[in-house]
């Protein structure tokens, strides 16, 4: 029997303290609360004081921003993960690459962008043959979607590899050796006309967008939000609105929305917005929410959706949306390679291991 895991995000009041808790339930029974999400502040302080620190924002100094500029100037879109920077066993390599190395690089590359187009490729050795398997591009329009996107690409690509080697080499996936991969990323940089998209988990709810608030009012709200955290200026009491922001559980990687400022109890008529920030936590804009109950409601996983194209089944709407975007994996490709061949690349940019932890090599498209 499969385990049904659910999360609840609640506030408790104990004496004069307000406590935010992330509760985990397995098959309906409550387990230990997540210690990494718990936050305590005096009960009379604003909700925003719970979220002063964001453990999921990355730090970019001048050196890292200079690397991004070099990547753009030299048209570097290909990144190779080298053999020696990850464990030799295939399972360990894939686990470290999918959970850490690839998401970390994509978060870095997402700074200053409207979206990323990402393609993943694996070099596979099996029965004295070498093959290269590559996914089709997947658009990532919010940095908070990176984890789900990488998970979907990896799982679909490995499924394709498993089916292929079983059919043509008559061996299971476990017989394959994978110790090298390629990540191709096209950065679409922000412009004055860029429209910040919500994370996919909240886009599929269809509970936000179509702002009914004038641009002047939005500008005033944005201005006050920007001044509030940096300069300690309180948002004026006469500005009646509710603000929410996004958080990611450092342990389970679950994405959820939390209150930042609550001024109106009548949620049907109080203007409500969600704050959009970039990968370093800087303010990007506000998105109006027209149905906050639907927006905050956690999707149940008891409804199965079938893909009409390939008959795959999904209980998660985000996974289904990503599956459709990548067209059921139809554009995935495989190439047979000479196992003794040596790849030579010019215009290479080794990324600093003290920042990335892994030995990524960027390959430029042309000389600057």
How would you characterize the overall build of this protein?
The chain has 368 residues and is of the alpha+beta class. The chain folds into three domains: 1-45, no CATH class; 62-191 and 306-364, no CATH class; 206-298, no CATH class. The protein is built from eight helices and 18 strands. The strands form four sheets. Strands 5, 6, 7, 8, 9, 16, 17 and 18 form an eight-stranded antiparallel β-sheet that branches. Strands 1, 2, 3 and 4 form a four-stranded antiparallel β-sheet that branches. A four-stranded mixed β-sheet has the order 11-10-12-13, with helices on one face. Strand 2 and strand 3 (29-30) form a beta hairpin. It is globular. The mean pLDDT is 86.
Characteristics of this structure?
368 residues; alpha+beta; 3 domains; four-stranded antiparallel sheet; 8 helices; globular; Protein terminus
The number of E-state strands comes to 18
* Strand and helix order: EEEEHEHEEEHEHHEEEEHEEHEEHE
Shape: globular
Give the helix/strand class.
Answer: alpha+beta
Radius of gyration equals 23 Å
Indicate the mean pLDDT: 86
Strand content: 25-35%
Q: How many distinct folded domains?
A: 3
Q: What can be said about the biggest beta sheet?
A: 8 strands, antiparallel
Low-pLDDT runs of 5+ residues are none
What does the oligomeric state look like here? single chain
Question: How many H/I helices?
Answer: 8
Distance between the termini: 58 Å
Residues in helix, %: 25-40%
